[in-house]
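Box 3.1. Reading complex inputs
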Amino acid sequence: MKTLGYAILGLLAQEELSGYDLMQRMKGRVGNFWSAGHSQIYPELARLEVDGLVTHSVVKQQERPDKKVYETTPEGLKILREWVTEPPPANAPKDELVLKAYSVWLADPEKAAKLFRDEETKHKEQLSRYKETRSWMEHESGGDVLRPESPWFAGYAALRRGLIYEKGYVEWCRWVADSVEGKQDDPPKRKKKKGKKKGE
Amino acid sequence: MKTLGYAILGLLAQEELSGYDLMQRMKGRVGNFWSAGHSQIYPELARLEVDGLVTHSVVKQQERPDKKVYETTPEGLKILREWVTEPPPANAPKDELVLKAYSVWLADPEKAAKLFRDEETKHKEQLSRYKETRSWMEHESGGDVLRPESPWFAGYAALRRGLIYEKGYVEWCRWVADSVEGKQDDPPKRKKKKGKKKGE
DNA sequence: TGTACCATGTAATTGGTTACATGATTAC
DNA sequence: GTAATCATGTAACCAATTACATGGTACA
């Protein structure tokens, strides 16, 4: 089974969805750290069904094309549950902007500053969207965001990764931009203090 | 030109390297956010040479097989310099652990806690390695880590991304593990305060 | 009349990983 | 001997993106 299959099962475990619905969840990022196009999703759904992990029923709609609505089978839920607690293979994150940073010493400083300022802005915006979602979840869930056996908790946990990721990204972009502009004397925070702060 | 080509040019812009040297840099992560195997590197080097962006000379070694040492051409440096300040395509980060978190409500809490504790440990270790590298760079560079026109600065900037990334990862893993174990009442930091802190 | 959204699929291409293949030298 | 490192390549396979393809409804 490939990761995409588990991503789909994970979504279907929370609600019944059509291929089209899945596509939208995946475009907007499943719990913000996975994505897939419809050309990947439809064949994968077919494979999952052959393997007996999902089933579908055709929902007839007037005013709209008919659709196939998928749900997990008990077998599908079982293998999803097992997969969740297995350690994932070590992931080498790839980030083109960090690669650009690695060669930034060659670049025109003004253009470089603009690049990292623009990226800072993008990630600030993403951070704001995540914060809105967080507020919405906290209010809407009725406290379930902190109950680990609730799907609300799981979505909230994934969202928190996004919040931390973007917060760090913004901080880093700002540091790089400041540095190439010559306005940066020390790591962010603690300006004057002795800076003792033990090594680890 | 694909990203791998720029990754190679970025390394060769700092020092002459053989395909084997490049492979090692890439295994250990170029500035920690790109990677590639030797089966990708050798063909890509050949393409770069056909395009006139790198050249090689054969270095004869006794005690070791001969090797081809590559360097960038002026043309190669030029297109690298241009690429650096172009905005990268929006990257959708993929992280299998976050996907697992999204379905963690289905899992056995003890197994889930173990998973996230183990991951926390791994990322703590990576963080420690980065911190050692940081110290080494700061001492070895003679202050050049803060001079944007120095290759030291570029490597240092990439490293700082790694530091922030791992710091956030550790924090997140700990929060998830604490939560599934039932020891977590509030977002990290500020325990009692009113929590006013404006929306943005 | 044309754009946007709903809905589902297949085909071609690219990028990346794993496996295959060879061969020399050094250290245990 | 045999494992480890140096050194360079090709071939097969897989995952993912982009492009091709179809067809209905809503709305401006």
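In summary: The helical segments of chain B are 3-12, 19-27, 38-50, 74-84, 96-102, 109-140, 151-180.
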